[in-house]
Amino acid sequence: MIRPLVALIALMTGGAAMAYEEPSYRVVHQGGEYEIRQYEDRIAAQVTSGGSQNGSFGLLFQYISGANTASEKVAMTTPVAQSEKIAMTVPVAQSSGGQSGFMQFFLPAQYTLETAPKPTNPRVEIVSVEGGYYAVRTYKGSANEKNFLKAQSDLLNQLAVDGVAASGQVIRATYNGPFTPPFMRRNEAMVRVDWNG
User: Fold this and answer.
1) Which is the CATH superfamily of the domain at 42-130?
2) Where are the extended beta strands (E) located within 85-170?
């Protein structure tokens, strides 16, 4: 577990000049504290698990580091997306039970389901993430549970006030490593929405 974390820290603290590919989107609405983005379909490596976030991260990091049938290194992209499916009273907190959530690394745009290197670990799968509209609230600071739950609550409350229907789990998207100063970090709470524009 330590080696993947050290590698992520090295990758994501290379300075402000280092940029990582991220999925492209188009902003279709700017709300007061959120925006609605339209994403195209994307390809991701995914681990579905109700267990440890570090374990999921480690498996995905091993995949992009060459744990695939082509022994190919896959470029790191941002964000790392994760969601935990748990009881409705706390929809996105860490689950200690057997209910499933996911962690995803988006693959560079050059890959398709057919061309992405096949994982050697059966817990890692290559998935197509369907495009669509997502409401996104960006926030700074640590990507801890407390900050995420506040951003999630603020986002869902504002969507309810604005009459925008959310559908699906709220996703935590993180863009920086743990040694990036908190005031420089970019984190997002995002949820699929029904949007007619």
Assistant:
1) Regulatory factor, effector binding domain (3.20.80.10)
2) 101-106, 124-129, 132-139
For the chain, the residue count is: 197
Which value, to the nearest 10 degrees, does the dihedral of the CA atoms of residues 134, 159, 151, 139 take? 60
Q: What's the rounded Cα separation, in Å, for the pair 157 and 163?
A: 10
Distance, CA of 54 to CA of 51 (rounded, Å): 9
- CA pair distance 98, 12, nearest whole angstrom: 31
Beta-carbon contacts of residue 50 (< 8 Å; ≥ 6 apart): 84, 95, 96, 97, 98, 99, 100, 101
One of 3.10.310.10, 3.30.1360.130, 3.20.80.10, 2.30.30.30 is the CATH number of 22-40+131-197, namely 3.20.80.10
**What does the pLDDT look like over 132-188, one tens digit per residue?**
999 999 999 988 899 999 999 999 999 999 999 999 889 999 998 778 898 899 999
